[in-house]
Amino acid sequence: MSIERSFVLLKPDAVARRLVGEILGRFESKGLKIVAMKMLTVTKELSKQHYAEHVQKPFYPMLEEFITSGPVVALAVEGPQAIAVIRAMLGGTNGREALLGTIRGDLGLSRQMNLVHGSDSADAAARELAIYFQPHELLTYASSLDPWTCAGDEK
């Protein structure tokens, strides 16, 4: 098992609904570590970079309108198998169908306004982290809680 870094984006609906603290708390309560965080407004150019694989799709204009509609919070999150753990915590894309206990299942009702984006692979995480963070913004630090999140042979 390895320590991974993943990218998470709290979307404009999460910020507008004042769910940032709740969502951050879920990641931290799980034992994941926030190693970078910033609030920003996604520009059209940044949207095209982040969603490059979707730019030519018919739904992209609506996606761009949504993601640029208000502030977002970009996170770099670290932990054992962080990518898979975060994806499981997010739940299904549609909040109406996502399992209770997941972020989207507990807090969302929409497919498009689904509160949060999380990288779906190590390659995507590396690409997305590089879009939103400079290398010096990604911190490495020890926490007194680290030994209590999982056994040494699980890291």
SSE layout and pairings?
Elements: E1 3-10, H1 12-16, H2 20-30, E2 33-41, H3 44-50, H4 60-67, E3 71-80, H5 82-90, H6 103-107, E4 116-118, H7 122-132
Antiparallel strand pairs: 1-3, 1-4, 2-3
Can you put this structure into words, describing what you see?
36% of the residues lie in helices and 19% in strands. With 155 residues, the chain is of the alpha+beta class. The chain has one domain (3-136): Alpha-Beta Plaits, CATH 3.30.70.141. It has a 4-stranded antiparallel beta sheet with strand order 2-3-1-4, with helices on both faces. The protein starts with a strand and ends in a 23-residue tail after the last helix. 30% of the residues are buried. The mean pLDDT is 96.
What's the domain count?
A: 1
Strand proportion: 15-25%
Q: Over the alpha carbons, how many angstroms does the gyration radius reach?
A: 15 Å
Uncertain runs: none
How do the strands of the widest beta sheet line up side by side?
2-3-1-4
| CATH level-3 fold name | Alpha-Beta Plaits
In oligomeric terms, what are we looking at? single chain
What are the secondary-structure elements, in order, as H or E?
EHHEHHEHHEH
* Termini gap: 6 Å
- Please state the structural category: alpha+beta
Give the class-level CATH name: Alpha Beta
Précis, in short:
This protein has 155 residues and is of the alpha+beta class. The chain has helices spanning 12-16, 20-30, 44-50, 60-67, 82-90, 103-107, 122-132; strands spanning 3-10, 33-41, 71-80, 116-118.
